[in-house]
Amino acid sequence: MATSTTRPGAAPRRAAAYVRRATARDAKRLTRLVRTSRAYEGHYAPMVAGYRVGPDYIEAHRVFAAVETGTDRLLGFYSLVLSPPELDLMFVADDVQGLGIGRLLVGHLRGEAGRAGLSGVRVVSHPPAEGFYRSMGALRTGTSTARPPAVMWDRPELLLPVGAPGEETGPERGEGPRAG
């Protein structure tokens, strides 16, 4: 179960969720999550305006979805590329940010990467998300320069360490069921 405390002294807020492999049927919901993300408002909006996570992408890549237990409501997702190792996409629904869904996804990603024999995963971060990845143990390795017209701004480049296969790493331990 993913948990997060919202303010000092407050009871933990919880989002009961698990991670499962995304299917082609999830494509429209994944696309909607990307296009409606508040993280891509303002000058970032053009990058996701026409973005599409299609069934072909889901079938060709390791895409995993965090869903609410008992409802199958999509709370977030990520896509892991194995060669070269890179986090291609990661989004968490705006209304559940801060409830541990990102931590749940990063924990699952580390498990997938570890089982694949990877020691680390490259993350080219959306600038406002760098702090989150660093809080997950990612280390800043450089900057990915802007590539107009697709990306109009420089982005932090990080390396997310992965534990040995079967080794649990970081704060994601014990957060509930995971499906692979």
Task: Kindly summarize this structure in a few lines.
This protein is an alpha+beta fold. The protein has 5 helices and 9 strands, in the order E-E-E-H-H-H-E-E-E-H-E-H-E-E.
What does this structure look like?
This protein has 180 residues and is α+β, with helices and mostly antiparallel strands. The protein has helices at residues 27-35, 45-48, 55-60, 101-115, 130-135; strands at 2-4, 13-15, 17-21, 62-68, 74-82, 85-92, 120-124, 139-144, 155-161. The chain starts with a strand and ends in a 19-residue tail after the last strand. Mean pLDDT is 86; it is low at 3-8 and 164-180.
Topology:
Elements: E1 2-4, E2 13-15, E3 17-21, H1 27-35, H2 45-48, H3 55-60, E4 62-68, E5 74-82, E6 85-92, H4 101-115, E7 120-124, H5 130-135, E8 139-144, E9 155-161
Parallel strand pairs: 6-7
Antiparallel strand pairs: 1-2, 3-4, 4-5, 5-6, 7-9, 8-9
Keyword list:
alpha+beta, 22% helix
Give the overall average pLDDT. 86
Question: Segments where pLDDT lies below 50 for 5+ residues?
Answer: 3-8, 164-180
Outline the biggest β-sheet.
7 strands, mixed
Radius of gyration: 16 Å
Shape: globular
Number of strands: 9
Q: Which structural class is indicated by helix and strand composition?
A: alpha+beta
Succession of helices and strands? EEEHHHEEEHEHEE
β-strand amount: 25-35%
Fraction in helix: 10-25%
Number of helices: 5
Largest sheet, spatial ordering of strands: 3-4-5-6-7-9-8
Measured distance between first and last alpha carbons: 16 Å
